[in-house]
């Protein structure tokens, strides 16, 4: 009996690090045209240095990590080919005008207030699925909660599930539209 308890304890301990060391906070996505969209969040790395190497979501035909660069006097959007370094014990911001996850060829409508899962894959082998809330009205720099929160933190202000947003599109559960 005791031996079994130990085995369970070890299994739990072994499973912990991959999940607990990297977290995402204040994840939201928006679109301006229902063709392309972008997601923004913070990645909090509580563990050793790692790297974000891949992103996946079902809401678009193509999902890429992008950044903005300043070149020839203008700001351009670029795909990040070799991943995003996540230094130990640091927070990396995916924000307007900077790093973002880009959705090209949206396969479902970005309904205000709806949610979808975004999976982040890291060089260490860890994966993190982030609950992304669609907030087309979010202004750059505005934060849903004081600390940027972790993904479980309820977003204040924008109403909870089911509450129809002011836009009038309402509806939760966003049925995918046939193209
Ligand atoms: Cu982009």
Brief summary of the model shown:
With 179 residues, the chain is mainly beta. It has a domain at 21-134: Immunoglobulin-like (Sandwich), CATH 2.60.40.1890.
List the helices and strands and how they pair.
Elements: H1 2-20, E1 22-31, E2 36-45, E3 50-56, E4 60-71, E5 74-79, E6 84-86, E7 91-94, E8 100-106, E9 115-122, E10 127-134
Parallel strand pairs: 1-10
Antiparallel strand pairs: 1-2, 2-7, 2-8, 3-6, 3-9, 4-5, 4-8, 9-10
Question: What would you note in describing this structure?
Answer:
By secondary structure, the chain is mainly beta. It has a domain of 114 residues: Immunoglobulin-like. The protein has 1 helix and 10 strands. Strands 1, 2, 3, 4, 5, 6, 7, 8, 9 and 10 form a 10-stranded mixed beta sheet that branches. A hairpin with a 4-residue loop joins strand 9 and strand 10. The longest helix has 19 residues. The C terminus is likely disordered. The structure holds copper (II) ion. The site of copper (II) ion has 5 residues, from strand 8.
Largest sheet, in brief, is: 10 strands, mixed
Q: Architecture of the domain at 21-134, according to CATH?
A: Sandwich
Shape: globular
Low-pLDDT runs of 5+ residues are: 146-179
| Count of discrete alpha- or pi-helical segments spanning 4 or more residues | 1
CATH H-level homologous superfamily name of the domain at 21-134: PCu(A)C copper chaperone
Kindly identify the CATH topology of the domain at 21-134.
Immunoglobulin-like
Would you tell me the structural class of the helices and strands? mainly beta
Q: On the 0-100 scale, what is the average pLDDT? A: 80
Beginning-to-end CA distance, first to last residue:
57 Å
